[in-house]
Amino acid sequence: MVKDSVEIMEQGACSGMAAVPIHYYDVDRMQEKTIESCQGDLTVICNVLADYADMLDELLQTDRERLGFCGALQYERMRDRCRKITADLQEKICYDRAAAIEKCRKRAGRKPKADAGIGEDALVLSARRRAQQKTEQQPAAEQSKTG
Q1: Are 49 and 22 in contact (CB under 8 A)?
Q2: How is 56-87 classified by DSSP, letter by letter?
Q3: Neighbours of 16 (CB within 10 A)
Q4: 3-state SS string over 122-146?
Q5: What's the confidence (pLDDT) of residue 26?
Q6: How many structural domains is the chain composed of?
Q7: S-S: 14 plus which of 25, 27, 40, 100, CB 3.0-4.6 Å?
Q8: Phi, psi of 122 (to 5 degrees)
Q9: Is residue 126 part of a domain?
Q10: What is the reported pLDDT for 54?
């Protein structure tokens, strides 16, 4: 998912021309403030929060016992908060992350693979590629000897 978010970010790079005002209330100074950003930056923020929520979810699935009850609860709250912020942002800027990822995958002409090598060491991936190349080259060498 993170790679898909990076590809989406590269496609929608901000030109800085169309600024979107963001109003918020500064509790410490007790005053309303406004910052400006472009929609591309808001899309990036949305993607980053969604990716972070997915990573927290994966961490909770694999290391729940190690985290302990309080640690797991804290990460669950953070994950849920990130997902809520992402959903609110998507609604407000009329952005559909799932549709953008599918569009990106179609554009790249690939389907999601079950074994994409995410999280594996580079050495393991390299060995797997070399083994695959050798098996592809052996039938070609045998055909050239017989032919």
Answers
A1: no
A2: HHHHHHHHHHHHHHHHHHHHHHHHHHHHHHHH
A3: 11
A4: HHHHHHHHHHHHHHHHHHHHHHHHH
A5: 87
A6: 1
A7: 40
A8: -65, -35
A9: no
A10: 92
Question: Residue 26 corresponds to which tokens in the numbers above?
Answer: 């500064």
Q: Tokens for 135?
A: 């098996």
Domain encompassing residue 63: 2-112
Element (H, E) at 26: strand 19-26
Contact present, 47 and 3 (Cβ < 8 Å)? no
Q: Are 47 and 8 in contact (CB under 8 A)?
A: yes
CA atoms of 92 and 45, how far apart (whole Å):
13
Give the integer Cα–Cα distance in Å for 50 and 56: 10
User: Is the residue at 140 inside a domain?
Assistant: no
pTM higher than 0.70, yes or no?
no
In a domain, 9, yes or no: yes
Strand partners, 24: 33
The answer to whether residue 146 is domain-embedded is: no
The predicted pLDDT at position 5 comes to 58
Which tens digits make up the pLDDT trace of 31-66?
A: 998 888 888 888 999 999 999 999 999 999 988 888
Beta bridge partners of 32: 25
